[in-house]
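Onboarding guide, step 5: your first structure request.
Type a short instruction followed by the sequence, for example:

Predict the 3D structure of this protein.
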Amino acid sequence: TIIEEMSEEEYQKQVQSLITKKLEKPKNLTQEARRYWGHIDSGYYNFDQVEKDVSEIRKITKSDLLEFYKTLICPSSPVQRKLSVHMRSQKSAQTKRSVQIEINDLHTFLIEQGLNIKVEELTTFFSSKELINGPKLEDLLREFLVEHNKLKKDEIEDLIKNVTKLNSEKDEGDPKLEMDQENELIEDVIAWKRNMKLGPAAVPVVYFSEFVSKL
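The system replies with structure tokens like these:
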């Protein structure tokens, strides 16, 4: 790992760089007000957090950091844990595809059916239209064939059926994501949050009276 390959001198430079960033003074009154108000709003009144963090950072050795990484962060660690949230789309599986991909697919298909059609003709026709697999695509293709080709109605319908079959085969080939049996599916977020165990309320690190006594 990078930590193992890092020399002690390089590690100390990284530590000092982090300390310098921590101790950086606010550049304006707004930044300073936000820093103090954040401690007040949290309810912990931990105004000395930066100084405490710096003090703890100075104590962390390279071996400590390496052990922490190998135990809690490294994927090969037996005790490593992580939270993974997967969002399930509410839209149907028939997803929108880019116009360029649809035009190329249609052009290849129509050429294979023996039609003499230029890709520029397809591009011009579909440039202002949104292509979606399903009935809308069939209607647009039917409109295109009527305007640009002297085909009989039954011949056009046969082509439409073949396009529908082609799209269905392509959709069946798309990989479907399946959840692990141990995963939890959350249908109602509000109800799920209500079942969560409440954590302890915020308690001031130092009571306000002690700050007043220092004034």
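Each response can be followed by summary notes, for example: Residues 2-80 form one domain.
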